[in-house]
Structure formats: C-alpha cells, structure tokens
Amino acid sequence: MKWTSKTLMFAAAVWMLQGSMPGSAEAQAKPYYEGKTILVIVGSGPGAGNDIRTRLFARHAARHIPGKPQLVVQNRSGGGGLRARNYLYNIAKPDGLTIAEIIRGTGLQDAIDEPAARFKADKFNWIGNLTTATATCVGRIDRVGANLEDAIERSRKTQLREGETSGNSTGAAIGKMLQRFTGINTRLVVGYQGGAPIDLAMEKGEVDMRCGFVWSSAKTRKKHWFKRLGSEKPFASLLIQVATKRHPELSDVPTLIELAPDQESKDVAEMLTLTYRNAYPMLAPPGTPENIVKILRDAFWATVHDPQYLADAKKIGYLDDEPLKGEDVQKLIGKIVSSPEKSRKLMARIVSGK
Amino acid sequence: MIESATSGLLQVLSWPAFGFLLLGGAIGFVVGILPGLGGLTTLALMLPFAYTIQEPIAAFCFLLGMHAITGTTGDITSILFGIPGEGTSAATIMDGYPMTKKGQAGRALGAALTSSLVAGLEGAIILAISIPIMRPLVLFFGAPELFMLTILGITFLATLSSASLSKGVLAGGIGLAISAVGIEDHTGTLRYTMGTIYLWEGLSLAPVVVGLFAIPEIVDLAVRGSSIAESKVERISGVLEGVRDTFRHFWLTMRCGMIGVMVGAVPGVGGGVSQWMAYAHAVQSSKDKKRFGTGAVEGVLGPGAANNSKEGGNLIPTVAFGVPGTTGMAILLGAFLIVGLTPGPDMLTKHLDVTLAMVWILVISNILAAGVAFLFLSQLVKLTFVRGNLLIPFLVVFVFLGAFSANNHFADIVVACVFGVLGYFMVLFGWPRAPFVLGLVLGRLAERYLGISLGAYGTAWLLHPPVLVMIVILLGSVSYSVYKRMSTGSV
C-alpha cells in the first residue's frame, strides 16, 4: 500500500473527528452523559396524558443513565405531534442530548404521506415505548345494547352518534373502519376537545358512543361505567377492541382485525392497531451514534422496570399493558411504513375522510 | 357536609399541608407577577412533587394554592405596565393601564386585588354550595346551550364598541375571522395556515393580546419619553380607595364573579373568555359607557373579579367528572391521579372532605395573595414613576418572554410583533381592541358548539326549551340596544 500525503491527511482527519465524536474511546473513559442535560421534548401541551407519563419517566430515568445527567422536559405541542416530529428529525442535534416522547401516529403519518410530515419514521432511532394501549369502542348501554351485535341491530332503527375530536382523528378512523367492516349505521359528531369531554357528552346523551377509548384509562377513571369492572349499574358496554390479540380482560370482545372482511381491510386494520400498540414512544433524531442509542435504550428498559417508577406509575394508573423495547418499536414502525401501497392509500382516504 | 367542611379545614391548616400552601403560594406569587414565567409550565414542572408529597390535601395545598395565586397576581403587570402577566389577565389592561397613566396605579391595583379576593371567595362558596347539584348542573349544559351562551357573548361586541359601533363590530368580525385559522374539526381542512404547522392549532391568545396591548403602549412610552404615570396625583392611600371602590360597586363585583364561575364551569372554554365577558358586562351595566377605556375603575373590578372566581367554577367539572375546564385544571387532574384519587361521584361522597379542603385552599390562598400583594404595592407603584427609557428594555424582554411562553416557539414572537403593529394602528385610528379579542376568543367556541349541536341533533336543537328561552332573551336585549342607539343617534 502506498502512503500518499492525501491518505495521511485523511487518516489524521478521521482520527481527529473520532476524538470529537460523542461515544469515542476518549469519551467513554468517563460517562458521556456526566454533567450533561438531556432535553426531553413532549409533543403535546402541559397536562396531557403523555406529558404526565413523560415527566414520570424523566423523574426516574437519570438513575439508569451512566453519568446521571439531568433530564429537562419541554412541551412542543402542535399539529398532533407533527411540530415535535419535524423538529426532532430536521433541527435537533443527533448527539443524544435531545430525545422526545411523541404520542402515536409517527409511522401512520409517514405511511399515508401526510404533506406536512418532513420525516421518515423508520429513520428515527426508537428508544422504546412506555406502554402499549388497547383502544376500544364503547357505547351507552341504553343506546347500543350489550355488545357489537346489539349495536348493529339497534343502529338499523336509529342511527348511532359517535363523538370524536375531529373527523381525521385515529378514533374516528376506527369508527369508519367499523362502519366499513360491519355495516353499523353511525354518524360522526366532532369538535370535542379530548377524550374526557366526549365521555361527558356520552353522559349528557349528546352522543351514543366513541372509539379510541383506551381500556387502561377505563380502569382508572370509569370503573363505574362497566359491569366487568364491578359496577352494579353499568352505563356503557364495549363493542370492539383494537389490539393484535384479545386483551385478557376483554376475551369476549372482537378485535378490529378479526372483523375485517378481506385482506386489504385486514392490512389497514393492522396499520391502525400497530399505531395504538406504539402508543407512547420515545425517540431520538436520525444519525444519533449507535453507542448512544444503546445507552438510551438500556436506560429506558431499566427505568420501565424500576420498582420506584412502577410504584409511581401504578398510582396514576399508567401500568397499562406492556412497555416495548426500542428494537421492537423500530421493527413495528418499519412494518407500518412498508404496508402495501394499496392499503396505505386506503388508510389515507379513511383518515382524511375523502 | 359540615363535618367534612371542618375536617377539610383542619387538614389544610395542619402541618405540613399549610407549609406546602405557603410554599406553593410563594412560587405562584413570583410566577404570576413576572410576565414570561408561564403559570402553566411552572405548574407542570411542579406536578411531580405530588409523588413525593403523597398526602392528597398537602399536594393540593401546594399545587392548587400556587395556581390560584398565579391568577390573582397576573393582573398586577397588566395594570402597571400594560403587559398581561398571564394570557388570561389581559382584560384588566383596558382600564387598569389608563388609570396607571393617570397616576392612579395604587387605586387600580387595590381595586383589582380586592375584587379578585371577594370574587375568589364567592367562587369558593359557590363551589361548596353546588356540591350536591354539581353533576346535574354540568349535565344540563349541552352543546346547544353552550352555543347560545357564546352567541350571547358575541352580542357584547356592540357593548364594547362605545366609541363607534361600526368600527367595533367590524373589529369583532375580524377577530371572528381570525379565530377560523387552524384545522377545521369536521374535515380536517387547513384554514389560513400559510403552510406552517404553527398555525394548525390556531393562534394562541397570549402572543396576540401581548402584542395587541403591550407593544403599542411601549411605543407610546418611548415616544412620550416620560414615565408610565403621566402625573403624580396619589400616594399609597390610593390603594385604599381601590379597596373602597370594590365595596362601592359590590354587586358589580359579585355579578362579574358569578360570570367567572359560570364560564369557568364550562369545560374547554378557557380562562380568557370569562375576563372579557365580565369586562363587557361591566361596560354594559354602566350608565356612562364612554368612561371605559380611559380609566374607569369598574373596568378593573369586572375582569379582576372574574379572573379569580373562575377557579372555583373550573373545579366543578374537574372534580365531578374528571373533565378539566382549562389546561391548569388538566395538570391538577394529573395530581388527582398521583395522590390516588379518581375524579367523579366519589369526590362528592367518599372524599367530600378533600373536595371541601380544595374550597378552603382557594379561600386561604386568595386571602394570603391579597395580603402579601398589599404589602408590596407601594414599591410596585413606584415603578410607574421611573423614567420610560429605563423601563423599556425590561418591558420589551417581558413582552417577548410572555409571548414565547405560549408555545415555546419563535413564531409566538412574530405573532406578537404582527399584532403589535395592528394594535398600534388600531389605537392611532380609534378602533377598539376589546371587540377584536372577544371575537377571537369566542369565534372558535361558537363554531365548535354549533358543529356539535348540528351533528348531534340536526336542527332539532333549536327547539330545546333552554335554547328557546335564550333566543328570546337575546332578541329582546339586541332589539332594545339597537332601539336605544338609534334613538340617541350613536350607531
């Protein structure tokens, strides 16, 4: 091999660059995160469910990151998480000092070619998912009956009103699929400012049902609604669940995928189901060095199994289904964005309502 | 009930709960008084302490005490510098700042703090009284009734246009049109977002009102080259005059306090609406409407009262249904869960002592806030006699921090500047700014409730008995107002 001056200069540059990179041998001598601060961006406003979850995580995570950095939470709401996603992908430095928790939908927005999405979902470094979510459709017992069959039957006589935040929310998408798969006669009533106001509208009798109701929140906040949670005067019944397999407590409730009449329908139902499965994910910008991603993933996994974290999470009813490892979330996102083109187009039509 | 009330009070006054109340109150005081330190962000930041405190009443002493005091002290900077301490305390600027310019800052602050205290207590008492009927009360107001209430608010546009009806209504119309910016709920259509995600959620109130009101005043201060107060007509005794004003206009304070409670009890309306509706009511119920905007003390009493009483109202749907009325309450809802409580029927039976302890927290923190603020008033008032060119750099920083705290977005500052220019020209050409803000805060709500009403009931909602009653009241009051203006030729 002939050593030219150019080769030597290149080798020197690589050596110097390596020295300045996070995660280099020199940096590993003392923990990379020692004396540093990690900015944890939340893609929602203060007080939202995932804001509270993230602040809980941040409170316990530092103990599990070598060097014990400080974690500072910052809210960057807007566009259903789009603002935070675009920021993380395009502006945040990939140095492991900026990570985010952005509610479900990153993969779905990429898959349906959302025009304002300036990111590729599978290029993010996924750190983990705080918990999966089993979404359901629920209805007032006096309007929908005891189960899905009753609801379909009753809707033939009187159209059922489904309350949602907007016509293109994931909850509305579940409702539209349910309509498409089973022929249930529903119409959307939209404009509510979140799940709790829709629940209130159900109690007022303004709407008859809603979709996207997360089962774990029922267990913390709406025990008095359901017979299966011990209510003597049940107010609501469950119509379907959105999960890859039936939740152990909801073994008599069909999943959305089970109801799909053909393969194309199954594919779109699966995209939506996986979106809910990746309910509260944490992610880092693309290009974050592999060793830093590993530190973050390991710390994430240790935190979500930390007895102190679990005790606090239990207090607020946030021990829903299961956390997911970063590697598993990465695969799951890959599956959503690589869904067949026909299904992605159908999903785009369902979400946009066109 | 009496047993639970006594138990609640004793628990609030016991140690360490009372210590947490003092600590939360001190933080709330500083955050409220400094524009730019967002009360909501601070509340979210402090929420995890609830895990450590664990005991429900002590945790609420800390968080609710902080939240209530932030609201009370938010009015102080509105009056002294024309910069709202919180996005929700902008209406106090309308007459509070002109009073400061006339050298009556002490009187305005005295009036704002006393009305805030009186109405805060009123809100707490209403919260306590309404416990047995809380759930039926919230269930009674459906989307059609709420739509009619927003229409009632929109009719206040005319009231706030005392100088020129046509300019006022037009300004209100522009406010309504700007409220349409953002994602349309039904179809997801992006309206006037100009290709930026920032506008998807619509314009935030804080940068708009900060720009609209504070920037023109800073420009004016720079041009005048004098201090904010143009004349030294009072000493600190003016504060006592403000206290007396509250009792001179006691029923106005109580009515505006009631407006705060009612609007606060409607989930999703937000804190900004109640102050503007209370201000509009103060104008409407006055015989001499022309004084408003030039330093009428009633224009301070109204919004000052609503600013605090709304907290009692906000707690009603939060406690009874777990539906937070505002973002502040959404954060407090997190505290409920952290300390092991579930909002809902149990809060009105099994945990009634906790609910009533919250009433006591509101009462005690309001008294503490007013007491401490009175101690500092004389020092604060002195700031209005400082030369303008020394104050302006600090005011500019506060303005931009205040705007930026809405979304932590650079565009917040751009919005504040754009509305600053608009506000400057509105002042220059005699266009009222209050109807513009009222249109902005009510437009989105009116559209939302109309959409829900039509979606849920078709046109049948127009025949709901409460709606019919409200239509009759509205038509009556609008016809009377038009007749009166036509007969005096002030259209």
Description:
The complex is a heterodimer of chains A (354) and B (491). In chain A, helix 3 packs antiparallel against helix 14, helix 12 runs antiparallel to helix 15 and helix 12 crosses helix 16. By secondary structure, chain A is of the alpha/beta class. A six-stranded mixed sheet of chain A has the order 2-1-3-10-4-11, with helices on both faces. A three-stranded antiparallel sheet of chain A has the order 8-5-9, sandwiched between helices. Chain A is 45% helix and 16% strand. Chain B has 491 residues and is mainly alpha-helical. Chain B has a two-stranded antiparallel sheet with strand order 1-2. In chain B, a hairpin with a 6-residue loop joins strand 1 and strand 2. At the A-B interface, helix 3, strand 2, helix 4, strand 7 and helix 9 of A face helix 3, helix 16 and helix 20 of B.
- Strand/helix succession of chain A: HHEHEHEHEEHHEHEHEHEHHEHHEHH
Count of DSSP strands of chain B: 2
Please tally the helical runs of chain A, counting DSSP H or I stretches of 4 or more residues.
16
Helix tally of chain B equals 21
Q: What helical percentage do the residues of chain A reach?
A: 40-55%
| Strand proportion of chain B | under 5%
Neighbour order of strands in the largest sheet of chain A = 2-1-3-10-4-11
Largest sheet of chain B: 2 strands, antiparallel
- Span from first to last CA of chain B? 53 Å
Descriptors for this entry?
heterodimer, A: 354 residues, alpha/beta, six-stranded mixed beta sheet, 16 helices, globular, B: 491 residues, mainly alpha, two-stranded antiparallel sheet
